[in-house]
Amino acid sequence: MKVFIDAQRCQGHGRCFSLAPSVFGFDELGNGHVLGDGVVEGESLALARLAEANCPEHAISIGES
Amino acid sequence: MTIKPPVSDFATDWDHTDPQWVNDPYPIWEDLRTRCPVAHTDRYGGAWFPATHAGVSAVANDTEHFTSRTVVLGNGRPMEDALPAPIGVAPPITSDPPFHQIARRLILPAFAPGPINALEPMIRQLCNDLLDRVVGRGVINGGSDYAQFIPPAVIKRMLGFPEADEDLFREFVHIVLEGIDLPVEERIEQFAPIEEYFRIQIEDHQAHPRNDLTTFLLNAEILGEKLSIEHVFGTMVLILVAGIDTTWSALGASLWHLAKNPDDLARLVNEPDLMPFAIEEFLRFYAPVTMARLVKEDMEYLGCPMKQDDWILLGFPAANRDPEVFERADEFIIDRRENRHLAFGLGIHRCAGSNLARLELRVAIEEFIRRYPRFTLADPAQVTWAQGQVRGPRSLPLRVA
Asked: Is residue B1 part of a domain?
């Protein structure tokens, strides 16, 4: 599976990189972004799903890689 | 003090300074959610209150129909001699697009996780110094001995203000946020010492630049031009006001909850891995901050006949209790895994200081429960709550031994 952040929706709440620092990073404004190629499985998929379920802006999505 | 008539019906005559709302707003909001769900009042020159998550989200995300020109509901409307829209008196919180994004990008790097996380040792030290001051006492005040000191000390350092002025800051915050019932002329008079204080700080930083946010703002440029002094002043006021009693309130409410719920306190003490989830649940359940918007033009919205310059009170704390969005919304669940709460707002005005607020909240709770793994309310009747758009306990006597 692959995780995405919609940069237009992200407002920098910081929930994703706090809950799943191995999957998400942040830029100099504090907005989140996906680390690496965004392919997630097992533990990292579970973390990505946790982040998705906590993003107040619904900016995170997980789809087929 | 103005004596106001008591509220007859919160659906048609609400007032967020009514004692019933101040002391326990949650049953009122629950009632409004089922009955309205957008409540109205003629008070304050006309104002609306969406009580649902859907209503709050719609308004928060709609900068076309609503302006942030002012975000603190009061008897007057923003003064004409203030910075014109879309800048507003305290950019970026009072700014609308497109200027908003420019003013916000300017300050966001200072509040991004990197620089904020670097403050953790300082905040931890500060918390311990405060706890050392009351060591040996059986009852300490979680508000006036502890929570109220932490945010001002941090903000003071960030802005580069003198050591001794924290009491003044709290007074300023009180004036800005709690003086809303005063007539407009008196309110302007009240603001004079705040302006004078900031003028002195700005002049001091102009003469002696240093590595802090005030100097940063004085040197900052937008499109090759330095910010106007009004912009610098407004952003400094914003950082001071927004950075102080918000976090103080969230921390106070969290300690209040732990004092009343020994099971949650024991779990937090014994299971430190719960902390990230507990913090978010404190923020959801006791979200301190409510914002305001003004209606730009007459329109029908959420089924309501809104008029230009009507207020909208954006009840993020009410949205956080909406059962349409949160399972068991009226229960505090310390390990709640899914928590899309709106304590820091939604959309382009997401609280710029949220990383700092979370850090202060976490460290202050960690240090408090490390020192006092068991504490209770010393006297529930003595707990007092702030009125206005930032809600939290001001006096919070806790029995710690």
From this structure: no
Contact list, A58 vs chain B (CB under 8 Å) = 340
Q: Where are the beta strands (DSSP E) in B63-183?
A: 66-67, 139-141
Q: Would B217 be classed as within a structural domain?
A: yes
Q: Is residue B114 part of a domain?
A: yes
Distance CA A12, CA A50 (A): 17
* Chain A residues with CB-CB distance to B105 below 8 A: 29
In B, which residues are within 8 Å of A21 by CB distance?
A: none
Number of domains in chain A: 1
Residues 32-61 of A with CB under 8 A from B: 50, 53-58
Q: What is the pLDDT of residues B333-353, one digit of tens each?
A: 999 999 999 999 999 999 999
Token output for B133: 């001051």
Is the pLDDT at B238 greater than 60, yes or no?
yes
Provide the shortest C-alpha distance from residue A59 to chain B (in Å).
11
**CATH code for the domain in which residue B189 is found:** 1.10.630.10
* Residue in the block written with tokens 């704390």: B317
Burial of A42 (0-12, 13-18, 19+ CB in 10 A): exposed
The residue range of the domain holding B60 is 10-399
| Distances in whole angstroms, Cα of residue B56 to Cα of each of B24, B88, B281, B346 | 20, 22, 19, 9
Check which CATH number belongs to the domain holding A23 and give it.
3.30.70.20
Q: Give residue A16's domain range.
A: 2-63
pLDDT digits (tens, 9 = 90+) for B293-349: 999 999 999 999 999 999 999 999 999 999 999 999 999 999 999 999 999 999 999
Residue B393 in contact with residue B256, Cβ under 8 Å?
A: yes
Expressed in percent and rounded to 5, the helix, strand and coil fractions of chain A are 25, 25, 50
**Under 8 Å CB-to-CB from A50, ≥6 apart: which residues?**
A19, A20, B337
Task: Give residue B189's identity as a one-letter amino acid code.
Answer: E
